[in-house]
Amino acid sequence: MPTPQPSRRSVGLAPAHPSPGVLNIGEVLRELAAEFPQVTASKIRFLEEKGLISPQRTRAGYRKYAPTDVERLRFVLALQRDQYLPLKVIKDYVDAIDRGERPESLPGGMSLSPRMVSDQLARELSSHARRLTAETLAAEAKAPRRLVDDLISFGLIAPVEGRFDEHALKVTQACVQLESHGIEPRHLRPFRAAADRELGLVERVVAPVASRRDVASKARAAETAREISELCLNLHSALVYSQIARMDS
């Protein structure tokens, strides 16, 4: 008997198409294509940045998606599509599952089927929720503790309730490489200021929609903010690379 597909009223976290091993991002897109034809690699990376999934990485830095990552993506995408829930609400719900809790339902009535929330799955999902201490952050980034302290001091990373997330890890890893070129955290304060200015620009654009109280408006505001941020990053890269290209001319 075929495994039931997630519906618009009940979405599970167990694999609908069990797959041995891991998938790359192209294979994940193919897994999701039938139900979510509009999803893109950029969207998946955005959900990773928001802490909804945390795929493992190869030594070369390529993402490796486990079956639980794919089903977690399917669950999150269904909630966005069917109920227009903000990512924060979805993340709080999935984080509760990570902690071993059994939340009964989300706003709008969507819930997890009890058969799909086994203790084993809860442990697997919990293993993907990355919350690092300063010591484990330094170890994973292969950074001296001094560098981590400097990054905190200059506002480039900041703990939340004493822990650091995947974004802090990425910042630290980048700064390890930059330091090998003689670029120290104190030189990187303009990046923090530029990021804050960009965020202020995005917030002003989406403010009229974000100020509405309904969850659909908040979800649309978050999606618009993501799109604008990606455009800003593309613009920044193009401007920098155009100047670098002149060094060869």
Describe this structure in words.
The protein has 249 residues and is mainly alpha-helical. The chain contains 10 helices and 2 strands. It folds into 3 domains: 25-128, Multidrug-efflux Transporter Regulator, Chain: A, Domain 2 (Orthogonal Bundle), CATH 1.10.1660.10; 134-183, no CATH class; 189-245. Helix content is 56%, strand content 2%. The chain has a two-stranded antiparallel sheet with strand order 1-2. Helix 6 crosses helix 7 (145-153), helix 6 (134-141) crosses helix 8 and helix 9 runs antiparallel to helix 10. The model is unreliable at 1-19 and 112-129 (pLDDT under 50).
Task: Write a concise synopsis of the structure shown.
The protein is mostly helical and 249 residues long. The protein has helices at residues 25-32, 41-49, 67-83, 87-98, 119-128, 134-141, 145-153, 166-179, 189-210, 215-245; strands at 56-57, 63-64.
Task: Describe how the helices and strands are arranged.
Elements: H1 25-32, H2 41-49, E1 56-57, E2 63-64, H3 67-83, H4 87-98, H5 119-128, H6 134-141, H7 145-153, H8 166-179, H9 189-210, H10 215-245
Antiparallel strand pairs: 1-2
Strand proportion:
under 5%
| Integer count of domains | 3
The residue-averaged pLDDT reads 79
Largest β-sheet summary: 2 strands, antiparallel
- CATH class assignment of the largest domain: Mainly Alpha
Number of strands: 2
How does the overall form come out from the CA principal axes?
globular
- For the record, the CATH architecture of the largest domain stands as Orthogonal Bundle
CATH topology tier name of the largest domain: Multidrug-efflux Transporter Regulator, Chain: A, Domain 2
* Helix count, DSSP H or I runs of 4 or more residues: 10
Low-confidence sequence ranges: 1-19, 112-129
As a percent range, the share of helical residues equals: 55-70%
* Class based on secondary structure composition and strand pairing: mainly alpha
